[in-house]
Amino acid sequence: MREGQAAVIHRADYQPPAFWIDTVELCFDLDPAKTRVLNRMRLRRNPDVPVQPLRLDGEELNLARVLVGGQGTSFKLEGGQLVLENLPEGHEPFELEIFTTCAPAKNTKLMGLYVSNDSFFTQCEAEGFRRITYFLDRPDVMASYTVLLRADRRRYPVLLSNGNLVDQGELEDGRHYAKWVDPHRKPCYLFALVAGQLVCREQRIASRSGQEHLLQVYVRPGDLDKTEHAMNSLIDSVAWDEARFGLPLDLERFMIVATSDFNMGAMENKGLNIFNTKYVLASQSTATDTDYANIESVVGHEYFHNWTGNRVTCRDWFQLSLKEGLTVFRDQEFSQDLAGEASARAVKRIEDVRVLRTAQFPEDAGPMAHPVRPDQYLEINNFYTVTVYEKGAEVVRMMYTLVGRDGFRRGMQLYFQRHDGQAVTCDDFAQAIADANPGSKLAELLPQFKRWYSQAGTPRVQASARWDAAAGTYTLTLGQTCPPTPGQPVKEPVVIPVAYGLLDDQGRELASGLHVLTQASETLSFQGLQAEPVPSLLRGFSAPVVLEFDYGDAQLLALLAHDTDPFNRWEAAQRLALARALRFVAQPHEPVALDAPFVDAMRGILRHPTLDAAFKELVLTLPSETYIAEQLEVVDPPRIHAVREAMRQQLAQALQADWEWAWEAHQVGGAYRPDPVSSGRRALAGLALTHLCLAARASADPVWPGKAYQRFKDASNMTDRFNALSALVVSGHELARPALQRFHAMFKDEALVLDKWFALQAGAPDRGGNVLPAVRQLMQHPDFNIRNPNRARSLIFSYCSANPGAFHRPDAAGYVFWSERVMELDAINPQVAARLARALDRWNKLAEPLRGAAREAIARVAAKPDLSNDVREIVTRALAD
């Protein structure tokens, strides 16, 4: 193996470090080919650990000098570690100096110190700091940092690191320096360095206490006009965290820097957040409403880490959800609070649940299933997952539900009171929330509740009802089970908050409440009812479970028409559509024909006089192919694709007049604003245009494709322009080709817009196997660069991971393409390759011959002798499934 045979790391084996590092002084002489790093540390032995050698992590470093107390010392390099045995005895601090060099220009992994567009950047989470200098690269070692940066002034006029700028000046030979001191102790994964030709947008703000802060957003020259929304989002984040949780900004300045070469979305380095340009740059001509919403969310997420992740950090990487699950919950609440109005909040909640169901539920059911707090890993980068993030957020949300808004704020205050400046565990967080609310259900049930952290898999709640007309009694029985997952064949009952309501046939609410399900089976009884009610269960998606209830069409139509809970109203539409899709999939020789009640219900939602446009768009969007597949024991992706496309085609034709009305009625005039109301109107108009182009495809009517092409040319914002382009591509109209060519010509110098162009073509509906040849051709395009993670994701991931109908080809050519790309990327950037490798996680559910062909492709990757640990862990676990 290229990285050596890595050992599996177990949570149960955690040991505190043998040494603490109190202070770190780093001096960088920055050069793309050979950067010199002088690392002076003050260390001391941990008195709670037996005496042992100091083992410092290092990777791809050239070691030049090691001094202890200013004197040379013996050392050895052993398994990627620098081992020092002849160190001062006792527990007094001592000085250690290490001088190394590295080659940032050759660092294609984008971990540690690397070069992108002639600028220096760092990414140290999870284990990238060891690629900068030898260090105790673990999150429970927290130190104070002083950083001196030296570089050529002309090439690198901006020199940034964490904390406060305390000194800067000129050096000989056209060089200059900047000295930064971070006032807060931090683990090394939060270290950051940036140097390059950058410009910045600045804004001074005052906190509630009156303290002034400087906010800065750094970008490449030419992109400054696209930073206003990111800055506004940062200002909103600072104000929200102080107002909602009493957490003020604790730094003189807070910086965001954008780079186009980044493995992740963004990184919360203390005071110096480094972002993928995708989550910073936005203008109405280059970014969609979705881009604006994502920027707001990600800027909020990284800023909120300043407290939940930075001030209190993880004891070890198994506790990753301590910061990520909590901070995802916080960014979700932030976006909902900014949305304001109830229906806009519901839209955000539905969007979050869709991610959970289409990404996390399959992960829970596949070979990479793991608890929110994993028990073991081979490569930690593989556990930055939707389970740790999104399911982790749902676990926090259930705590919030069980203690209430005020109780949760009290719990957060106690958490920081106890643990500020510490590296702690998920147990510490849960204990703080419970202890702050001693009379709550959470406090009462805490040991059982914490099974959410230790058990993998998605619990299933089985609900059944019995109506006794004579007695006027409605009995609801709730049960819970959880299927086995790798390494966990038996599951214990968990704590499941079930929000519910009962409706009569006119939609009036007869009862509502929250039942906390803790046993394998429990029964609720409701007395004094005049007629059998319709149950509305798991309102607001009150727990991350699969609800199994044998709803009839009449009940679902009643919920769709009347439920006061917006989530369950949407859910009713999803269940109606899903039931039909599954029936059609199971009957391959029968025509796909939507029934009148379903079509009429969709028309009723589309024409509804008071429902929010964004909510209508969600209701009228059919369940995804991935979600449909997860309901089946044996999966035939091309069949699912054909069924969903046929259903969409029928909705297009049956509701053509209604779609025309929706298009005309939801145009947005005036200046562009990405607010929820305007965005919702554009989203519904875009959905309408797609359906109108689909209807035109069936009738060969050129009118609506012509209107779409005209809108594409004339649009005043990227949302409308891209919606029109997408409508042409999705409908397969001949105007799509000139529109795509024109789009490329218009935006050939806008990297993020070109990512959309690549992704749209790779994600297009497959017609006769046409998508894969197009993808292979696009890989030869001058603007395609597989070394850039955004570009690789836009084309390769959009095809392999997001277009199942085109990827799972009967001739297995999609799997061959996948295996080639995984191995190609693995030699460049193992993190990106490992994410792509996850595209075949669920191969075991595929119908033959797809199943055998997929397994063969995975085995082909696994047989590669110099595979990275990142990819090897994924494919090995997949083959063991």
What does this structure look like?
There is one protein chain. This protein is α+β, with helices and mostly antiparallel strands. It is 41% helix and 21% strand. It has 27 helices and 32 strands. The strands form nine sheets. Strands 2, 3, 5, 6, 9, 12, 14, 15 and 16 form a nine-stranded mixed beta sheet that branches. Strands 18-19-20-22-21 form a five-stranded mixed beta sheet, covered by helices on one side. Strands 30-27-26-32 form a four-stranded mixed beta sheet, with no helix packed on it. Helix 2 crosses helix 3 and helix 9 (553-562) packs antiparallel against helix 10 (566-586). The longest helix is centred in the middle third of the chain and has 34 residues, at 386-419. The two termini are 22 Å apart. The model has no long low-confidence stretch (mean pLDDT 97).
